[in-house]
Design brief:
With 322 residues, the protein is an alpha+beta fold. The protein is built from 11 helices and 9 strands. It has one domain. The chain binds zinc ion.
Length: 322
């Protein structure tokens, strides 16, 4: 595919796939068009790491000859946006984790989880739209083979259904003020972390390398991740909806014992390996040796290249912090 075709496809990827994702407690969806919602708070997590209005993310640059991956500058107001909620709901729904934030409680966890789910759900729907458009479909069928292509689409649709289910459970938890179906592990860090991320992933192993991969016809369940500051706290949070999947994601949360929960290398590895929606403080990246920068880029590239398989575990193989 040439570069202009790729750019057209990416531009299409960023277009809304649905109306505002807000659903009222009586089940009525909002009909307003979505704006660019922030999956990380513009005034919180992103601002904390921004310098001169910019943050860095690891991105590919396509040239006719090759793809170059590197840390690239992005305006902090553009970073991590997706067309998820209308103007009214983007500000009202998430007020308690933005300007009206008071204290970290179960509601905070639910709102940060909802934001991760919403972004992931948008990404999944946009992927399905992109993969099933005529030209792309032909290309994918040719490169993957018809059966693998059908499998790819089926898997993406199954993941989309699961995320929709997770979203409705978290929506209900927020309207009922009953957070019993959301489990989480949170760590409060003494110092600010020089990176921030939010996203979702399906763990295949616990941190003790016990396999927790469900079979293809079972629900997988997801872990939702947030790393960044909220109010005056520097927080890393993983959460899951316990009624989806076979409870395997809870095993992953259980496996993150105290030894990992405050380890900055663990969170950096997790952010790079599992969460593509990760951003870095420019001066912190600049301070790193060339080899450390290359190792971070390489880990990100391997994990995020289209045909790359997920590594079997969140290995803490990058030791960037002493
Ligand atoms: Zn709305």
């Amino acid at each position: 595919m040439d570069f202009s075709a790729f750019q057209k496809r990416i531009a299409k990827f960023k277009k809304p796939v649905c109306r505002c994702m807000y659903v009222s407690p009586d089940g009525v969806g909002c009909k307003n068009p979505p704006i660019k919602s922030h999956s990380l708070q513009k005034s919180g997590a992103l601002k904390q790491i921004a310098e001169s209005g910019h943050v860095l993310s690891i991105q590919p640059n396509f040239t006719p000859q090759k793809v170059d991956w590197d840390f690239r500058k992005i305006g902090h107001s553009q970073a991590s946006t997706f067309p998820g909620y209308c103007k009214k709901h983007d500000s009202e729904l998430f007020a308690d984790v933005e300007d009206s934030y008071k204290t970290f409680d179960d509601r905070t966890v639910a709102l940060l989880t909802l934001r991760s789910i919403s972004r992931e759900y948008f990404t999944k729907l946009a992927q399905i739209r992109m993969w099933t458009e005529d030209a792309a479909q032909a290309g994918f069928k040719k490169s993957l083979g018809e059966n693998s292509y059908e499998q790819l689409i089926d898997n993406a649709k199954a993941a989309g259904r699961e995320l929709a289910k997770a979203k409705s459970i978290v929506d209900k938890a927020l309207s009922d003020n009953d957070f019993s179906k959301i489990r989480h592990v949170v760590a409060f860090h003494k110092e600010p972390l020089p990176f921030t991320f939010t996203g979702a992933f399906n763990p295949e192993y616990t941190m003790q390398e016990e396999p927790i991969l469900p079979s293809a016809d079972e629900e997988w369940g997801s872990i939702f991740a947030f790393c960044g500051n909220i109010g005056d706290s520097f927080v890393t949070l993983l959460s899951t909806v316990t009624t989806i999947g076979q409870g395997e994601c809870s095993k992953f949360l259980d496996s993150i014992s105290g030894e990992y929960s405050k380890d900055r290398n663990f969170w950096l590895n997790l952010g790079i390996e599992y969460v593509e929606n990760s951003f870095f403080r420019p001066s912190w990246v600049a301070e790193q040796s060339e080899i450390k920068k290359l190792l971070m880029i390489e880990k990100f590239r391997v994990e995020n290249s289209l045909n790359g398989q997920r590594a079997p575990n969140c290995l803490i193989d990058l030791e960037i912090f002493d």
